[in-house]
Write a structure and sequence with these properties.
Length: about 140
């Protein structure tokens, strides 16, 4: 099974267990991200094309690392003016490993539940710290 997803202004053809480098996403290594802009899903001869998106289809991927691309050289020159500028640029990118492709959006519900659990546990931890700080002041 494969899917065509759109992220960072580009389109990628992905399948399960693929590694892909995309424009930087705000996620830590080890986190799960859900790519919900799925343009096409295919399985053998069976293909489902969205107009523009396939309804309910999601691709779940795990962030492997945050890295930077190979350096490119930007060289500007104006002839006969003694004008030369040389700069380098390294684009930030995120390396993703595709976990699975789902047509019904079930994996996105699981990821949303995980995110909600993380948020509530973070709130509880913050409340405990605040309570401990209040008791230490008294």
């Amino acid at each position: 099974m494969f899917a065509v997803v759109k992220t960072g202004g580009k389109q990628y053809r992905v399948a399960a267990d693929d590694l892909l480098k995309v424009e930087k996403l705000d996620a830590e290594p080890g986190e799960t991200v859900v790519l919900d802009q799925v343009l096409m899903v295919g399985d053998g001869d069976d293909r489902k094309v969205g107009a523009p998106l396939v309804e309910g289809a999601v691709v779940e991927a795990e962030v492997v690392e945050q890295s930077r691309a190979k350096k490119i050289i930007v060289f500007k020159k104006k002839r006969r003016q003694n004008y030369r500028r040389k700069n380098g640029h390294r684009q930030h990118q995120t390396v993703l490993k595709v976990i699975g492709i789902s047509l019904d959006g079930a994996s996105s519900k699981k990821a949303a539940a995980k995110k909600a659990a993380k948020k509530t546990s973070a709130k509880k931890a913050a409340a405990k710290k605040a309570e401990a700080a209040d008791s230490a002041e008294s």
